[in-house]
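input
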Amino acid sequence: MSDRMIEDEKFERKLKPLGFTINEIKPDGHCLYRAIEDQLSLQSGGSSPYAYQELREMAAAYMRKHAFDFLPFFLSENAIDGDSDNSPAEKFEDYCKEVESTAAWGGQLELGALTHCLRKHIMIYSGSFPDVEMGKEYKSMEGPVHQLGLSGCHTISMPLGLESTIILFSQI
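output
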């Protein structure tokens, strides 16, 4: 049995009792944003108020505006090359440009920004890793969003009663 099959099995065992179903999102680099877009459309009962590209732009703009909140985490994840003439702030700006204008995969920094932009509570589930909860301060507000993808992105359909939470799933 492959690692992916084992992960899928663990994932399904975790999701089934929660009443979630998996909606596959194409793993094209935009999957994190597309999954959030999908969840927002489920919440609104129609189309999402934001397309995936708008979500990318929102995340980048928020990170720029709150750079001091993100820069330490950016620096810990992105070694600064000693031979580069660019300052850490310039490298962070380059990163933000990449977030908004390429198909670079999103991660914890971008999800952190989006929790605040959207004012949404986000839950990230994984078959093999501990669940991650972001935006707890928005837990009682309206509207769920869920998603995260490592080698594959998945969103879930939420059962009734989780209207203030976005749920994301991570699979290896």
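quick obs: Residues 11 and 127 are 4 Å apart (CA to CA).
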